[in-house]
Specification:
single chain; 140 residues; mainly alpha; two-stranded parallel ribbon; 6% strand
C-alpha cells in the first residue's frame, strides 16, 4: 500500500479530509510517525503506541496500521502476545530476522509452528537511541 499525502489536520480540517481521501486523518498521521520512530530490532504493541500518543486504543492503532501502514515499518507495531500478524507471518518474519529482532522458539519454528516475538527483550518504550537509555521521547 502506498503512503498517502501526509498533510496535517491543521492544514486540512476534518471536513476537507473527508472530501480528499488522499490526505491522512491526523490520528493516522500520528500513529504512522510513531511507527517510523521504532528502531530496527525493536517493537511496540498497538496499546503502547496509543499510550505514547495519549489517544485512542489498541484497536484504533490496529485499524490505522491495517489501512495506512504499508509504507512504514508495520512489522514493528505488534500484538501484545508477540504472535506474528496473521496473513503476513512470512514477510514479518523475514524483517525480524533481518533486523535481529529477539524471537522466542525460533529454533523450533517450521511451517506449522511460527516463532513469536520475545516481548521482554524486543519491546521499546520510546527511549532515545533505540536501547531505552536516556528516558522517553516527548509525547506529541
Amino acid at each position: 500500500m502506498d503512503r498517502v499525502d501526509r498533510k496535517t489536520a491543521e492544514e486540512h480540517p476534518p471536513e476537507q479530509t473527508a472530501k480528499h481521501p488522499d490526505r491522512l486523518p491526523d490520528y493516522a498521521e500520528r500513529v504512522l510517525e510513531v511507527a517510523e520512530l521504532i528502531p530496527p530490532g525493536r517493537v511496540m504493541t498497538y496499546g503502547d503506541v496509543a499510550e505514547w500518543l495519549g489517544a485512542g486504543g489498541p484497536r484504533q492503532v490496529g485499524r490505522v496500521m491495517a489501512l495506512y501502514g504499508g509504507a512504514v515499518p508495520w512489522w514493528r507495531v505488534v500484538r501484545a502476545d508477540g504472535r506474528l500478524l496473521p496473513g503476513h507471518e512470512s514477510r514479518a518474519l523475514a524483517h525480524y530476522r533481518e533486523e535481529a529482532t529477539p524471537l522466542r522458539d525460533a529454533a523450533h519454528a517450521d511451517a506449522t509452528r511460527l516463532p513469536r516475538i520475545d516481548m521482554r527483550r524486543a519491546r521499546w518504550d520510546g527511549g532515545t537511541g533505540g536501547d531505552d537509555a536516556g528516558g522517553p521521547l516527548p509525547h506529541n
